[in-house]
Amino acid sequence: MNVPLWVAGPVVVLLALATRADVRTRTIPNRLTFPAMLLGVAMHTALNGTAGLGASLAGLGLAGAVLMPGYLFRWMGAGDVKLMAAVGAWLAWPLALVAVLASLMMGGAISLVVAMRRRMLRRALLGAGLIAQSVISGSGMSAPVTTGVRFPFAVAVFAGSIISFWIRP
């Protein structure tokens, strides 16, 4: 594992609590994400000084920024963005980038499984195609386009973040 225990332990606890809340209530509470962000930044600063502060803030900002379009287009909730930002604060730059990309890949895999189980794979793939077409063309979307597949995204963040523990950026 390439992540120190003082980072891995709190991240696993945060993700377990957030996933439990998201699966049960489809929300991730601010009382969980905001303190996690602050603690991640504080720990990196305390242990690594200004370099730790910069790396943690970069991880927080990058992880949140990558998921922000998903929130703006209503593909995910604000809690998902804040959870990823909190994980980014703990994992810091550049590992936060690995975690967010792995989380997005896991989200795609989970959405395929959910779409197949709900017998809506064709509809989901058509929606994904429309999204990709509008992003590539730069035309924007007049109305939010979705794949129609909804699931607690904290599950994908949990899986992607755990995967990132073993990847050296």
From TrEMBL:
A GO CC term assigned to this protein in UniProt: plasma membrane
Lineage: superkingdom: Bacteria
Ranges annotated as spanning the membrane: 54-73, 93-115, 124-143, 149-167
GO biological process: signal peptide processing
InterPro entries xref list: Prepilin_IV_endopep_pep (IPR000045), Prepilin_peptidase/N-MTase (IPR050882)
One Pfam family from the record: Peptidase_A24
Keyword list, A-Z: Membrane, Transmembrane, Transmembrane helix
Domain Prepilin type IV endopeptidase peptidase: start-end pairs: 12-111
Gene Ontology MF terms: aspartic-type endopeptidase activity
Family under the similarity heading: Belongs to the peptidase A24 family.
Protein name in UniProt: Prepilin peptidase
Organism: Eiseniibacteriota bacterium
